[in-house]
Amino acid sequence: MQKLLRRLKSGEILIADGAMGTMLMERGLNPGEPPESFNLTHPEVLEEIARLYLEAGADIIQTNTFGASPVKLSLYSMEGKIEQINRVAIRAVKKVIGEQAYVSASCGPCGRLLKPYGDVEQEDVYNSFVEQIRIINDEGVDIICIETMTDLTEAIIALKAAKTAAPSIPVIVTMTFDPTPKGFYTIMGTDIATAAIKLEQAGADIIGSNCGNGIENMIMIAEEFKQKSRLPIIIQSNAGMPEMKGTRAIYPETPRFMAERAKRLVSLGVSIIGGCCGTTPEHIWAIKRAVEVMRCK
Amino acid sequence: MDVLTEISLYLQRGNEEKVSAFTRQAIEKKCAPKDILNNGLIHGMNIIGEKYKIHEIFLPDVLLAAKAMYAGMDILKPLFIKGKIPTMGKVVIGSVQGDLHDIGKNLVGIMLRGAGFEIIDLGNNVAPEKFVETARQENATVIGMSALLTTTMPVMKKVVDLLKEKSLNNSIRTIVGGASVSEEFAREIDADAYGYDSIKAVECIKKLVHQR
C-alpha cells in the first residue's frame, strides 16, 4: 500500500470512518460500560463495524482503543487488560480490511486533569501513553490518531509518547473546539492558532479537529487551521449536537447535509474527512460520493 | 490596598499561597470571618465566574482560583460556629450513573461553593437512590445532576420519579445539566430547572432555594 503521507502531499483527499461509540451503543453497549470492554467480550462487533465503514468507502479505519491507556482504563479497574484490549481491537480491523485501507489506532485523553489544574502528574500521563502506544506499535498500524484533546499539554505529551514508542508511524493530532464570541477555543482555553503552531512544532504529521458542535463550525475551524499550518488537515465532525427524543439520542445532521458541507472542506484544502459521534456508514458513504464528484470536475 | 481586596485579587490570579497568607493576615487584623469570606474569597470567585461567563478566562483559571478559594476557606473554617462555613443552602451534586465525565459537574461545584453554598459531591457513577438518600439524610435543598453522555440521561428521570414517589419533590428540588441535556429534556422529565452552564446553574439554584 502506498505511503499515506506521500498520497496526502500529492493532493489526494482521503475519507476516514465515522463514529465508534454510538455504533457500539446501538449494538448493546450499556450506559457506564467503557467501549473498550467490547474488545474483550464482542470482538466480532468490532469486525462488523470496520466492515461497514470499509464498504461505505472509508480509506482509514479506526480501532476501538480511544480509552485504552492505563490511566483511563484504571478508572474502570481494567488496566490489567491493556494488552489484550489494544491487540484485539487492532487485529479485528486488520482482519477485515487487509490492504484495502489504513488502520488508525485511536488514542483519546487520559480522562483526568493534569497538574496543576487536576491531580495527575504529567509524567504518569506520558508513561501511560507510552505503554499503550508500545503495544500498538508492536501490533503494527498505519497511523496513530490522538483525538478529542482539549488540553494542549496533554495532546503534546501523547504526541511525544507516540514519537518515542512508535517512531516510524505517522501521527494525527485532533483537538475539540467550542465556538465563543471571541472565536474557537477548547474548554481548556487553547485557540486554533496556538494548537496548530505548537502541534506542528512538536512533530505532528497531520493536525485538525474532531467531535465538536457540527460540521458548519468545522468549516470555520478548518479554514483557520489552513491559514496557520502547512501540515495536512483532518476534520472529523459530529453529526451535530444530540437531541433527546424520549430516551434516545438523535444526532440532527443527515448524511446529505454533512456531505454537502464536506465539499466546502475539500475546497478549503482539507486532506482527510471523516466523522465523529452520531455519524454512521451512511454519512461516510455520502461524504465519499460528494468528494468523488468534486474530484471529477 | 485593603487586605480583603488583596485576597480577592490573588484569588483571581489563582495564587493559593498569597490567598492563604492574606487570609491569615485579615484574621490577625480582626476582620470578621464573615467579611473575609464574603468580601474577600466569594468576591474574588464571583469575578472569576463573570469572566468565565464572557470567555475572558477559561477552565484552567477557574480551577486555580478555586484551589486558592478552598485554601482560604480551610483557614477560616475553625473560626465559624461549629467549625463550618455559613451556607446559603446545601446542594447534593454528582454525575449520573455511568458517567465518568465530571469536569462540568466539578465546575458547578466550584461555582456553587464560590457563591456560598455547601456542596456534597457524590462524584461519578451515582445511582438514583444514592442521590435521593443523601439529599434526605443531609437535609439538602437541591439535587444537581450532570450527564455528558446521552445514554446516561434516563437516569436523571429516575431521580425525579423517586422524589415524587417518596413525596420529597417539594422539599428537594432538582436541576440537570451537561453537554447533551436541554431545556426541553429537563421539562420532559419534570426536573425543576436546567443549568445551561455552571454560571446559569448557580443562578437557577439560588432561585430554587428561595422558592422553598
UniProtKB/TrEMBL annotation, chain B:
Pfam name, any one: B12-binding
GO molecular function, one term: metal ion binding
Signal peptide positions (record): none
Stored CDD domains: corrinoid_protein_B12-BD
GO cellular component labels: cytosol
GO biological process, one term: homocysteine metabolic process
Residue intervals of the B12-binding domain: 88-212
UniProt keyword list: Cobalt, Metal-binding, Methyltransferase, Transferase
InterPro entries referenced in this protein's UniProt entry, alphabetically: Cbl-bd_cap, Cobalamin-bd, Cobalamin-bd_sf, Met_Synthase/Corrinoid, Meth_synthase_dom
Entry keyword annotation includes Transferase: yes
Residues of the B12-binding N-terminal domain: 1-88
PANTHER family according to UniProt: METHIONINE SYNTHASE
Family label: Belongs to the methylamine corrinoid protein family.
Protein name from the UniProt record: Methyltransferase
